[in-house]
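Tokenise the fold.
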Amino acid sequence: MRIAAYLLIAITEALVVIGLGGIIFKLSVVNKPITLLLGTLIFLIDSVMFGLLVGVRSNNQNSAVQIISLVGFITSLLLWELWYLICHFGGVFCYLFLYQVCMYLWELV
């Protein structure tokens, strides 16, 4: 029941942001809107489920919020840096970067 309530709130927020963003900045969907809507729905379901997982496993609300923020930041940072390396330096540096990330994660385990 919690998942449905949080998902309804997330979908409402996404529709408001996409709608107002389109009106204010005069943007429209270029290709197929179903792809955007389906991708947004999958992302929201994933985010809500991950948030509930962390919320159930954490001791208090502050630590849950910090964990979610940290995971989101690290994920976007790693993906941006990986994309930058692929676009500007080619595959060799990309493999070196992935090796460093894997070794760092291996040390954490």
In short: The first helix runs from residue 2 to 24. Residues 61-109 form one domain. The CA atoms of residues 10 and 87 lie 33 Å apart. The mean pLDDT is 83.
